[in-house]
Structure formats: C-alpha cells, structure tokens
Amino acid sequence: MKVSNNNSILNQTIAQQDNLFKKLATARRINSAADDAAGLQIANQLTSAINAREQATRNVYDGVSLARVYDQGLQAIEENLQDLNTLAIQAGNGIYGASERQALQEQANQLLDNIRQTIDNTEFAGKGLFNQSGDVTFGTGDSSLSLATDDVSALLTNSELFDFDLTDPAQLGTALGNVQQSLQQLGGLRADTGATINAFEAAASVIDRQRIGESEARSRIEDLDYAKAVSDQVAGNILLQSSISVAAQGRVQQEQALRILGG
After folding, report:
1. Among 36, 95, 97, 108, which residue has the least CB neighbours within 10 Å?
2. What is residue 229's predicted lDDT score, i.e. its pLDDT?
C-alpha cells in the first residue's frame, strides 16, 4: 500500500512537471480549458475583440490614405486655378493687344488641360475620385466613418471654368469671376477633406488605445508569470527527485520483504 501511494505521488508530480514545461514552452498560463476554463473563454472573447480592432484600424487608415490622395488632387487643381486667376488679371493689362492675349490664352489652355488630366487620373485602388459624388464608407465594427467625394468635373463645368476666354477683353471679368468661384468651391472641399482626415486619425487613435487595453487584459489572464513558473519548476524538480527516491526505496523494501517471506 505504501509503494502504491509513492507511485501515485510520483505520477502526479510527473504530470505537474509536464504541464509546467508546456506552459514554459508556450509562454502561456492557459493552454487548454483544463488550465482555466473561465479564463480561456474570456481570453478568446478578448482575442476576437482585438482582431476586430486591428482590422478596424486598417480600415480607418485606408480611409486616411484615400482622403490624402483626394486632397492632393484638389490641391493640384487649386494650384492651376491660382495660375489661371493670375493670367485673367494679367490679361486686363491695357497695353496688351490681341497677340499678347492669345499667348495668355495658350497658357490658360495648358492649365485647363492639366486640370482635366488631374480629374481623369486621380484615383485610389482603381476608383476614380473626381468623377462622381458620394460617400466612401469605412467600417470600424461598432460604427463607420465616411469621406464625402464630389464630382469635381461637374462642379467646374457648372462654374463655366472650361469656357475660360482671355482673347476677348469683354469676357475677362466673367473669366476671372468663374476662376474665383471655382477656387472658393475647391477651398470648401479641401476644408471638409482636412476635417475628415483629422476625424479619421482621431478615430484610429481611439481604436488603437482600445486594442492596447484589451491586449493588456488578455495578457494578464493567459500569459505565464515566468518568475513564478521557474520557481515552481525548481520546486517540482526537487519533489520529483524525492518521489523517485522514495519510490525506489519502497520497491527495495518490498523485494526484501518478499525474500524474507519466501525464505
């Protein structure tokens, strides 16, 4: 009976050491439901939340990237409009004749072509940004954020920007007014886009802080306390050696008793 009890202690000690080695190898306190069923369930829920936060952050930063491309396109158009504004004022110089105004018109035509090319070529992931109005939405799990895009081509066409004419002195006032109207409209779009970028970045920061907090909570639940685990391992090794010694001694005593009884 004594030998059986010693073997039971030895087997239990070996099992405890095997479980401890597994924890040390994985750096986790919980490797299966047997280790901590409630803790495992909470850790799994936190993992799902963390994964969702990570994807939400990627979504939002995709939104930031798109908004920056959109704003850069608007800036390029705005710079061309500023040059057109300068040309319209220059064309009002009384010493200019028809040939000088024609030269200015040719410069203006090049700037207008630049604007058309920017409208046609500004895209993100194959999606044109200046050819239609609408909202581009980015989900964050619990909610969503949107970037409002405008049909810039239609906006400038409605402002009669592409009818820009510097060759007719009587039309200079109209040309200048159309350019300034377009500049005002694009300024509003850029202001809205800037506010959207700030909102996206703020949301990404909040989501990331939530992810960090949830990661820390999961770590406290499932991660291994290495100092304690190593201490337990040392104590377990001592107990294991003692159990082996006791078990071996028990077998020797049993064999001696059997020999005496047999003699």
Report:
1. 95
2. 55
- Measured CA to CA, the distance from residue 52 to residue 92 in angstroms comes to 60
Q: What are the contacts of 88-92 at 24+ separation with CB within 8 A?
A: 88/164, 88/166, 88/172, 88/175, 88/176, 88/179, 89/176, 91/166, 91/169, 91/172, 91/175, 92/169, 92/172, 92/176
* Nearest CA among 210, 206, 203 for reference residue 51: 210
CB atoms within 10 A of CB 64: 20
Q: Among residues 11, 50, 18, which one has the least CA distance to residue 34? A: 18
pLDDT of residue 112: 97
3-state secondary structure of 168: coil
Between helix 226-262 and helix 2-26 the angle, nearest 10°, is 160
Radius of gyration in angstroms for the set of CA atoms belonging to the chain, rounded to a whole number = 38
Place of tokens 């990331």: 208
pLDDT of residue 172: 93
pLDDT score for 256: 57
Positions in the chain whose pLDDT score sits under 70: 1-29, 32, 223-263
In the block, tokens 């040390």 appear at 24
Q: Which of 197, 193, 204, 61 is nearest to 129 (CA)?
A: 193
CA 80/CA 112 separation, integer angstroms? 8
